[in-house]
Amino acid sequence: MEEETKKRLDAQLEKIYTSVEKTRKYFLWTLIISVAFFVLPFIGLLLVVPKFLSIYTSGLEGLL
Fold first, then answer.
1. pTM (2 decimals)?
2. Cα 41 versus chain centre, distance
3. Considering the domain boundaries, does residue 2 fall inside one?
4. Nearest alpha-carbon partner for 25 in 33, 35, 15, 14
């Protein structure tokens, strides 16, 4: 009886481990996608906005 219980417990532990690994990979890819869609465009804006402002203000210099 004890051997059968140990086998069932081992099988359950294996299923739990597999489930935890799938969940870990899901969270990892969620983090990667979040960085790709939110952080990278923000960094791009930090690089583009100063260039846009310099072009915009240089166009206004003749009017002032």
1. 0.61
2. 13
3. no
4. 33
Residue 5 included in any domain: no
Domain count, the chain: 1
Apex 28 CA angle, 25 and 30, nearest 5: 110
Q: In terms of residue numbers, what domain contains 49?
A: 18-58
Eight-class DSSP state of 61: T
- State percent of the chain over pLDDT 70: 97
Amino acid, res. 60: L
Residue type, 24: R
Task: Encode the chain (64 residues) as per-residue pLDDT tens digits.
Answer: 799 999 999 999 999 999 999 999 999 999 999 999 999 899 989 999 999 888 888 877 776 6
